[in-house]
């Protein structure tokens, strides 16, 4: 398999996934925030909360549409660029995607129309129910997608069938309740909540700086700060849980993130700073925090954490074990039902390492003909490039703690200082709007780049997963996707900026929080069809 095609296919999927994830976190968080705002409106009957719900709901709608447009094409790539992957694991990977489409996406897409056009056609409680169903649909979509992705990180509940040459599901329960998938779901959703909170906080701060829509902005800041603080704290806690699960399921990824070349005796230290040197296999100018990695990775002070060098040796051992499984597999395939029981037993004993033998396909057509040097090269391929993982993780963590600090400050001022926000604080809130997207993209980079060289960890190498396409075909589709998605991103940015500048549509008087009170600011012109007809 031409490795240039593999790299281009990886790049194409990475580009489309990262473009798509520009829209996902805001959809996840803003749907919940909008539902909270409408809940307050239904409970209090104050028109300002209806106005807030409509305004932030409009921005949610713009983002939702672009998220759907960029997300649908991603699933087609599995058949287009990753056909052997789809054949090899489709029975398992396809199940959560199908459930996501039937259970979550249809729920979300069905009720989103009622949210926008049902304001004067449904009762208050009926419309609130619709809003919460949209929010639940958004989050259920994330759940099933992350169950599918979590299985790729930790392939439980499945077994390889030597007769069909495919992975088959043995336990749907194990796939759904995979510890990696559940940890990824709560961590990713919480990150989406932080994204929406920072977005609402930043836009509201901009209104206060411009002295526009002050009542809406102050209340939005109060909601965003409290919701964002809880979410930012949960991201850190749940991210710690993700790190703990990686210790069990993806030891090499953890070692690469930590640039941990040698096995760390208990209790392992956390490397706060350093410059990883993969060629020399050492980290220069490293600054360590004693005991921290032991507590994060093992929840104890008595368990060591294996380093990259030891894991490479372990990978070489597993490659040699996998060759035994590969040899037995070839005999089973040739003799079918007549294969001796001893051969089948040998495959069962070593079948868990078959994927490691397939790493040799990069160097030799028949893994059984691999030399010791090629086995050593394949074992070293299990080490991802360390320095980008090392720094991406640390920047992500630093941003996470920054969100906690900012949200805590705004929560304190909103709760105990009568919302008297200094201009520098408001300017900081505006400037930091892109930060959660940067953190989210870095998180996905760590998760996916750290899994290499595997499409399905320990089961199917990336180099074997791609379709038989030419470099030209992949390069042209890559260029087309980048051009299309860039255009869609610019359209979304233009629409979001347009509606933020225009501000909320005042369909009811809001001053004094009474329907009969005079308005305190002029009513902007009516917006486009994204706003429900009055």
The proportion of strand residues reads 5-15%
Number of helical segments? 18
Overall domain count: 2
For the biggest sheet, the summary is:
2 strands, antiparallel
Strand line-up across the major sheet = 1-2
- Share in helix: 55-70%
Spans of at least 5 consecutive residues with low confidence: 511-534
Query: How many beta strands in the DSSP annotation?
Result: 6
Euclidean distance between termini CA atoms: 60 Å
Give average pLDDT, whole number. 88
What is the element string, with H for helices and E for strands? Answer: HHHHHEEHHHHEEHHHHHHHHEEH
Which of globular, elongated, flat, extended, rod-shaped describes the shape? globular
Q: How large, in whole angstroms, is the Cα Rg?
A: 26 Å
Structural class: mainly alpha
Subcellular location: Cell inner membrane
Biased composition (Polar residues): 520-534
Organism: Roseibium aggregatum
Protein name: Cytochrome ubiquinol oxidase subunit I
Structure description:
The structure is a single chain. The chain is mainly α. The chain folds into two domains: 361 residues; 73 residues, no CATH class. Helices cover 68% and strands 5% of the residues. It has 18 helices and six strands. The strands form three sheets. Strands 1-2 form a two-stranded antiparallel ribbon. The C terminus is likely disordered.
């Amino acid at each position: 398999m031409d490795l240039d095609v593999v790299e281009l296919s990886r790049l194409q999927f990475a580009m489309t996934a990262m473009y798509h994830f520009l829209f996902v976190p805001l959809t996840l968080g803003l749907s919940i925030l909008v539902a909270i705002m409408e809940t307050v409106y239904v409970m209090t009957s104050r028109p300002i909360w209806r106005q807030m719900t409509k305004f932030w709901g409009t921005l949610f709608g713009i983002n939702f549409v672009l998220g759907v447009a960029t997300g649908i094409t991603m699933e087609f790539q599995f058949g287009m660029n990753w056909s052997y992957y789809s054949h090899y694991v489709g029975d398992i990977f396809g199940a959560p995607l199908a459930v996501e489409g039937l259970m979550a996406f249809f729920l979300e897409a069905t009720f989103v129309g009622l949210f926008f056009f049902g304001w004067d056609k449904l009762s208050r409680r009926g419309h609130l129910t619709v809003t919460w169903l949209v929010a639940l649909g958004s989050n259920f979509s994330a759940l099933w997608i992350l169950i599918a992705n979590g299985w790729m990180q930790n392939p439980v509940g499945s077994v390889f069938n030597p007769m069909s040459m495919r992975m088959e599901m043995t336990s749907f329960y194990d796939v759904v309740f995979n510890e990696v998938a559940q940890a990824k779901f709560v961590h990713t959703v919480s990150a989406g909540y932080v994204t929406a909170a920072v977005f609402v906080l930043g836009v509201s701060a901009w209104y206060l700086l411009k002295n526009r829509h002050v009542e809406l902005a102050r209340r939005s800041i109060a909601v965003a700060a409290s919701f964002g603080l809880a979410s930012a704290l949960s991201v850190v806690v749940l991210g710690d849980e993700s790190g703990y699960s990686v210790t069990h399921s993806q030891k090499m990824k953890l070692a690469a993130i930590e640039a941990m070349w040698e096995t760390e005796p208990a209790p392992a230290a956390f490397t706060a700073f350093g410059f990883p040197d993969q060629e020399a296999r050492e980290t220069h100018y490293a600054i360590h925090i004693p005991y921290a990695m032991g507590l994060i990775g093992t929840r104890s002070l008595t368990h060591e954490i294996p380093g990259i060098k030891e894991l490479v040796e372990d990978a070489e051992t597993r490659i040699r074990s996998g060759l035994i499984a590969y040899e037995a597999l070839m005999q089973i395939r040739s003799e079918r039902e007549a294969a001796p029981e001893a051969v089948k037993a040998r495959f069962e004993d070593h079948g868990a390492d078959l994927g490691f033998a397939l790493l040799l396909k990069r160097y030799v057509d028949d893994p059984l003909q691999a030399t010791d040097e090629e086995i050593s090269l394949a074992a070293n391929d299990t080490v991802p490039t360390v320095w980008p993982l090392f720094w991406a993780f640390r920047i992500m963590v630093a941003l996470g703690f920054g969100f906690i600090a900012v949200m805590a400050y705004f929560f304190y001022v909103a709760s105990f200082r009568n919302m008297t926000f200094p201009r520098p604080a408001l300017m900081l809130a505006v400037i930091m709007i892109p930060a959660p997207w940067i953190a989210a993209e870095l998180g996905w980079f760590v998760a996916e780049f750290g899994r290499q060289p595997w499409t399905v960890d320990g089961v199917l190498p990336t180099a074997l997963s791609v379709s038989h396409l030419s470099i030209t075909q992949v390069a042209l589709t890559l260029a087309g996707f980048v051009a299309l998605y860039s255009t869609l991103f610019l359209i979304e940015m233009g629409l979001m900026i347009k509606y933020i500048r225009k501000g909320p549509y005042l369909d009811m008087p809001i001053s004094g929080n009474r329907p009969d009170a005079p308005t305190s600011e002029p009513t902007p012109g009516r917006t486009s069809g994204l706003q429900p007809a009055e």
